[in-house]
Amino acid sequence: MAGTIPETKPETIPGAMTDKIVVVTGGAGALGQSVVEWFTLQGASVAVMDYSDEILANTFPVPLTQHCYIACDLRNRESCNEAVGRILRQFEKIDILVNVAGGFLMGDPVHKVSDETWDFLFDLNSRSIMNMAAAIVPGLIKQGNGKIINIAARAALAGAPNMGAYTASKAAVMRLTESMALELREKNINVNAVMPSLIDTERNRQDMPDADYSQWVRPEQIADVIGFLASDQALAVHGACIPVDGLS
User: Is residue 153 part of a domain?
Assistant: First the structure.
């Protein structure tokens, strides 16, 4: 009947992405694992990337045959090009890139931030996105479609004491997301980002034992929003930086 609302939406049912090839950087981390799991449940094939074969093997001791697991130094463009080449040789295409990999450091006021801290944060949070874009975007343009989802941070909305380098590096993620979205939207490529606050991970619980964990956003909740942005339901969304912060 005309006007009837379907009971299920195509991209939210299990197996809805069986023809999709997804690249997830930082796939062995707490959020990365949840993102990999989300796409796995949707039937996608996932190229799981992290910085060493050892951490990938320890995190995924029983690898899934439809996935591949690739070590890559995201700070190095040649390493990214080589990793993406391996993915394309196995899967022949890439549909979705989720840039989960990132780093966090705080404690120094801006005038005491070392070159090492600055380079670490900007290389891992910002340069990694540029390097993966250089390796993957030309293929997305050629095939005429694609999705890119970046991980910014709610903290990037404003400066904070002793977090200047971190907030600046994540603000750069937001500006890169917005710029890429404007550059690529006419080519049927969606570029968006999510902005988590405190994520409920084992490491964060260890670092903040007295916190109220119920206020924090869970990795699987962030993965749900990333999944939405990767779906056809988000075809009209370009350059959004979406807060995903639970009650924190």
Answer: yes
User: Do residues 38 and 65 lie in contact, with contact meaning Cβ atoms separated by under 8 Å?
Assistant: no
Write b or e for each residue in 2-29: b if 16 or more Cβ atoms lie within 10 A of its Cβ, otherwise e.
eeeeeeeeebeeeebbeebbbbbbbbbb
Render pLDDT for 80-114 as a digit per residue (tens, 0 to 9).
Answer: 999 999 999 999 999 999 999 999 999 999 999 99
Dist. CA 47–CA 69, nearest whole Å: 6
pTM, two decimal places: 0.91
Beta-bridged to residue 241, according to DSSP, are: 193
Decide if 1 is inside a domain: no
Tell me: the pLDDT tens digits for 195-241? 998 887 888 888 888 888 888 889 999 999 999 999 999 999 999 99
Residue 4 falls inside a structural domain: no
Domain harbouring 214, CATH code:
3.40.50.720
**How many structural domains comprise the chain?**
1
Residues annotated catalytic, as ranges: 166
CA distances 139 to 50, 143, 144, 145, Å, are 21, 6, 8, 9
Domain of residue 192: give its range.
10-243
Q: How far apart are CA 212 and CA 146, in angstroms?
A: 38
Report the C-alpha gap between 198 and 245 in whole angstroms. Answer: 7
Report the C-alpha gap between 220 and 199 in whole angstroms: 10
**Residue at 2 is within a domain:** no
